[in-house]
Design a protein that fits this description.
The protein is an alpha/beta fold and 203 residues long. The chain contains 6 helices and 9 strands. The protein binds pyroglutamic acid.
């Protein structure tokens, strides 16, 4: 199975983004006949979708998983749905801050992830790592990118399963914040190995 794993560059004043740390680390591994190809996306509206689509068409993966940082979450979040809306509480890395704007005019209001999210949550939990389904990927660049990926795959009728996973802060990010939950990189990597293994066995 060929898996395209995408993470984001740091944003909002952070020095790292766990999503890219995880995606990058896994690209150096080989397990269960899974080939992981990683790409780092800009935390920028529009450009993130363009680069994700470019990566999908060059890599031609079986599975696409985009990862993102969701500071404040206590576990791995398997996103169920992407909404056709941009509504940013902070500016992206290019200074864009859209408000109540559709991502794509005339396109569906939402897309569901095409990954078996309940099964994945259960398996990650069995590995001893906090995980939950999430019914909102927010309305910032992650939701935007998830929507763009699912819309592209749907419109192009590609046989690619795709979804989005949000990650908590890394301990080094949480250490300077008041009561912020975090998860170690090692645990995040274990969770993603579980996710990829389950997907490779059900392809
Ligand atoms: N998290 C942001 C965008 C990039 C990232 O890692 C989000 O949740 O929208």
């Amino acid at each position: 199975m060929k898996a395209l794993l995408m993470g984001f560059e740091p944003f909002g004043g952070e020095a790292v983004n766990p999503s890219w740390e995880v995606a990058q680390s896994l690209s150096f591994e080989r397990f269960d006949r899974i080939q992981v190809i990683s790409r780092r996306l800009p935390t920028v509206f529009g450009e993130s979708i363009d680069q994700a689509i470019e990566a999908i068409s060059t890599v031609q993966p079986d599975v696409v998983i985009a990862l993102g940082q969701a500071g404040g979450r206590t576990g791995i979040g398997l996103e169920r749905v992407a909404l056709n809306i941009d509504d940013a509480a902070i500016a992206d890395n290019n200074g864009n801050q859209p408000c109540d704007a559709p991502i794509m005019e005339g396109a569906p209001a939402a897309y569901f992830a095409t990954l078996p999210i309940k099964v994945l949550v259960e398996e990650v939990q069995k590995a001893g790592i906090p995980a939950a389904t999430s019914n909102s990927a927010g309305t910032f660049v992650c939701n935007h990118t998830m929507y763009g990926i699912l819309h592209y795959i749907n419109e192009s009728r590609l046989p690619i399963r795709a979804g989005f996973i949000h990650l908590p802060y890394l301990p080094e990010q949480a250490s300077s914040k008041k009561e912020a939950p975090s998860m170690s990189l090692a645990e995040m990597l274990t969770a993603l190995r579980v996710v990829l293994t389950v997907l490779s066995r059900s392809s």
